Amino acid sequence: MKLLVPFPVGDRFKEIGTKVLGKGNVIWYPDSGEADALLIRDNLYPKDKNFKFIQTVSAGTDHIDMNKIPANTLVASNAGAYSISVAEHAFALLLERTKRISIFEDETKNGIYRPHSTKLLYGRTVGIIGYGGIGSRVAYIAKALGMKVVTLGRGHRDQNSDEFLGLDELDKLLVQSDFVVISIPLTSQTKDMITERNLKLLKKDCIIVNVARPELVKKSDLLQFLDSHSDVTYMTDVWWNEPNLDDSNRENIVVTPHVAGGLSGEIMEVAYLRAFENIKRFMQGERPLNLVRKDESLYLDRKKIGI
After folding, report:
1. By CB distance 3.0 to 4.6 Å, which of 178, 224, 245, 253 could disulfide with 124?
2. CATH homologous superfamily, domain 83-255
């Protein structure tokens, strides 16, 4: 079996792929040829060939039109490959706001020495919506900080979750959470899963952190809610119609430019390694990890594709 990589990659990633799959088993761009497996980075890939297996570099797959992929072709995401980086980013956002870092920085740079009260994460409850690789890592860090962890997901459970809820129990998570971290994949089932009705259940001074996809939250409902609840903060690494940042200029909104997954070589080395290892599983006749449920897939033609 051979793998086709139809986009340019650096020499380091080629070294990783060759080490995992063996010399001569990968067709590297710009070369082409017959292959059973395909590695894709975006929605631009050969659609005139019937591959048996498609592996994405990204963790999300909502930028890929599954209707253009034959029904008998297996598709796997790279879920979990960026978990450490994204979870760290989620806590960077939480700590920035609870410890008021940017406020102190702005004031002290302007010669203003004015202490403000800060908040503890210790002893507080974090609700994690989506308990895959990222959610699990968020819970791991939260427990180290002495937090109570409430999680919502499809089936994964571990010792870091104090209370595990099913996907139909979102309201139960929201009413008890001091902080909410959104890390669930975007599918036809989860689009607009958080609306005005859900937001009204939040505690006073709640901080919401979204490190998944913007479309999980209904934008119009969120903006209306934040305008009338200045105590609630929405911190996010993703925004609708990126890189456009329409409507984000509010005191209780903090946006980072889709960098939670990391842009450094060390993080991408892990991502490519995970992708190549999953391709190897397929080539050896094993069931690949992170297979996509095509019946729940959702395609959005994005200007910017994140991880």
Report:
1. 178
2. NAD(P)-binding Rossmann-like Domain (3.40.50.720)
